Amino acid sequence: MRRRIYRFRNFRLDPQGRELSRDGQGIVLPASSIDCLIYLIENRERSVGRDELAAAVWGRVNVSEVSVNHAIMRLRRALGDTGNEQTFIRTLPRVGYRWIGESIAQDLIVDQDAAADPLQAPVEHPVEHRPIPVDVVGHRLATPSRKLPYVRAAAMLAALGLAVGLAGSLWWHRAGRVVDPQEAMVMRSATAVVLPARIDASDEWTWLGLGLMDLIANQLRRSNVPTLPSETVVGLVRTNNGSSTGDLAGVLDRSVRGAAILRIDPYAEQAAGVWTVRLDVKVAGQAWHVESESSDVLAAARDAADQMMFKLGRTPAGRSGTSTTQALDQLQQQINAAMLASQLALARSLVDSAPPDLRSRPEIAFAEASIEFFAGRYDATQHHLEVLLDRLPPTASPRLRAQALNRLAASHARRNQLDDADAASAKAIAFLASHDEPDLLARAHVGRGAVALRRWKLDEATAHFGQARMLYDASHDLSGEADVDLSLGSTAMARGQPGVALPLVRRAAERFEALAMSDARIIALRNVADAHTLLLEHHEALATTDRFWPVETHSGNQSERWWTMLSRARALVGVGRLADADALLRQVSEHSDPQRDGVARAVSAAQAAQLSLLKGDTDMALAHARAALTPVLEERDDFIYATTWRTRIIALHQAGEVAGAAREVVALTAWAATRQANDRRQLYVAMTQAEQAEIEGHGDQALQRYGQAMAQAQRIGVPEDIVAIGQLYVRTLLAAGLLDQASSVSGQLASWAHQDARAAWTQASVYAAAGNDDAARKALDRAQHIAGERPLRDPAIQRP
Predict the structure, then answer these.
(1) pLDDT tens digits for 439-474?
(2) Which of 262, 309, 715, 716 has the fewest beta carbons closer than 10 A?
């Protein structure tokens, strides 16, 4: 297809891309100046009145004369055209303007596939692009240098677009064309993406880059327009290294999986004390804009957003009553901008320095609680939120109340206060039943699902996660979708389905990485590593932990760092690096907080007990197991609690305390009967019972129980469990002289003999018992190579 460009002297103008360049170098101009140039050139055969130009560029005629004059003045300056010489633009007193420069129109052949994408249109020659500044979403909030050339979103304002009907159908008159109802329907169903605003003002207004983005996104949500969360957009921009808006088109399109995109590119400039806020909109192959002026930039932004709603055939939501003053409104957006940019210290300083009348507002109280939450100070978070909820009237600020309940639930969950977490999420769900806030309702369902998962109520957890996934899908909330994928993967892991979990948690990790959500990405990668471990893919597990190591460079949340170290330690044990694993466990034990990090410390002690058992240090295994078997671990993860109890019993066996071990087995069996059903936990209880029968000399009983446990492990299908039980079963079969049966069971482990030392050692034992010393030596050598620092007992092989 063809696309027109204009050349005059050494300038090149691409109306569709709204790009002006000189000698191949892009020229930075406000959007209003570029659009004035386009309109004047395209109507060069006649004069253009001021009112006509204002209507074409600003979308209305009641634009101040100052705004029009400023736009033309900037344009003249960029073209080197003075008011006296008037080489390109002639001023016609009491009439308007006319383009008088010599220009050549050229038709550019554009690839049909590229042109079909309304978000991205190619240009004839590459022009230097000004990217969305990484600093806006990185380490500091900074105003982009105005010396850099900038290319705005690819779009052409062909003619004036006016909304002439708001009740059901939308008609747009553009260049003599009427938008049909089907196209209007696409516009109404599109997912909105609000990009960081470009600000043309002094440095003190830098925060508006993210502040206006978030304000406009919230306006859209209140008008029931599906809108990508601001955090998602910031992540996309950050991940793409501040690429220009045009370069983000493909990323956005993939993010919403082909759904129509309503892309809003905000721009704000200040001149003579007046703010002009312009929203460039692109949807359904159409490009248009709205603009508003005010001495208050946030008021101008809201007015522009309302105009956009009308053009989309939607009724703008009523103005929120929560912002009673301009100062409160501005403070909220400044704090939100700082938090979006992960600048918690800056956000905290904004709260601390706020006047008392503003700091006492509920909105600022919630912001303060959010800062504490993201900093990992959950006790402070709970205090702020409980005070806030007590003072909020039941019918006031419903969205704020639901947000506070959800954040309170998350804070309780982080502190392992499951009853309180579940109660807060349940309150949020009940409250939201009479309010249209799908994103908050989804978050409340995730909260209840997470508690159910921790309590091993897996069907209940899956039901809540499923409801949340549907709500997030409908609103194209990418981070929410990833969060649910991670939760569903965790549920599959709890069911003993690492093969099912792996693609879910891997997809969640990829999505979190794409959105630059660092802590969520690490949590997902920990689940990926654990899935690999259960699948006996030990090197893949360690390679996964390499992606978040060293942890100090990937996460600022100290409490989460301990969990990340524990994941790394498990992967290190899997490849036989016991000393490195031991060093990490010592760090957790010595430096974590006994009160705040009680669960992480208990899990660390549990892993240390297993590690000591591997090294043959019975006393340390008993000491670590005793430290791990605490009520907090029992409440948080009764599977780890059960396997740690089993570690203690094995250590008692090795210490010769058979009677003491027998009492522990009876207690473990009784305890397990009181817990929520869990096939894998029961499997390890049965394995412990078989080991006790074996050590007490009840061979037949031991064989029977091992056989039942092996059959159950095969039904569950977790390779880690199959090998753990199979190794013990084979040992007992060989001791009973049942070589054929031992060989059969060993064969069931053969698939993992090249990657797991226990499976390889079991093969060596069977070969040695069969007198096949050559095969036994090869299998043992392989086992010792895989084992690393783990000691292996040498089976009875005749060495040459």
Answers:
(1) 899 999 999 999 998 888 889 999 999 999 888 877
(2) 715
